[in-house]
Amino acid sequence: MLSMEQVAGQWKAKKLLQHALRSGKVSHAYLFHGPAGTGRKQMALAFAKALFCTSGGDDACGHCLECRKFEHGNQPDLIQLAPSGQSIKIEQIRELQQEFVYRGNNGGRKVYIIERAETMTVQAANSLLKFLEEPAAEVTAILITDNGQAVLPTIRSRTQPVPFLPVSPDSLLEALLAEEAPPLLARTAVQLSSGLDGAREILQQNQFAEIRNVMIQLGKESITRFTAAMITAQQKLFKNGLGDNPQLLLSLLVLWFKDMIQYQAGRQDRMVYIDQLDWISKHAFDRSYAGWVTCIEYTFEAGKRIRANVPAQLAFEQLLVNLQEG
């Protein structure tokens, strides 16, 4: 279990939380908001560990009894809550409240972490609101969300916002290379994530290297060999399981078209598929800058159709038709 100082990046969040610990002015509730993969959950656990720590500093010492209990997963006064299905339901919030009432007689610090707080039903949010309006001493809530604006205003107004900002791809790439991640895969992963945690998760996905290779093939065929592209999509993506995350596939395709623009602009050092430089150099000017932008727009539209419940394979086939027609 990392300390707050060891969580990569997010100096603003660290500064805010460490000041609260130093000053003894810990809020009864925090809202950790920002893109997934930026270390929100990791920081929430590190902050909770620091809250339980008995050293009295602005971070967990890692040595005291409470820190050791936390590291071994033996901290009964930490409760973590995540959506049941698609949402956090009122029954979950009621169970949380009952748990704290039951443990209230023990005194001492208590922390609860709610992931994807924006998924709370209205009933659950209203139930939590009552909990936040009458905070018990030594109880701290940490709500985690991708989008702070998606959380009810009444909840937001009773929490201390803690922003988590996207980390630059260059910084992420440097960190991943220091961890000896495969350079070409790392160069791709940092463009698909807002933080180090997210980039690591992408690299750890089964078949990520294969998915990248297939999308390179599809990117080439989509503008030169329409029939081959349709076969690649059918046989290599949707018949063998590589198409299980269609939004990832589309993001990789967008990066392919962006590389065409980067080459046209003379920014080869900013290209993602740098291993394909020879092929790209021969085809980057097959279409104009505006033409590649149109390809990117078509790809985004395919993502919207999939989110609207259009079958992924159908959306991809329509995308390939659009790309061929230009």
Automatic annotation (TrEMBL):
State the superkingdom. Bacteria
Q: What class of enzyme is it?
A: transferase
The record's Gene Ontology biological-process terms are:
DNA-templated DNA replication
Q: Provide the transmembrane region boundaries.
A: none
| Molecular function GO terms recorded | 3'-5' exonuclease activity; DNA-directed DNA polymerase activity
Spell out the Gene3D superfamilies in the cross-references: P-loop containing nucleotide triphosphate hydrolases
Q: Which keywords label this protein?
A: Nucleotidyltransferase, Transferase
Stated EC number for the protein is 2.7.7.7
> Pfam families, alphabetically?
DNA_pol3_delta2
Identify this protein by name.
Answer: DNA polymerase III subunit delta
> Which gene is annotated as encoding this protein in its UniProt record?
holB
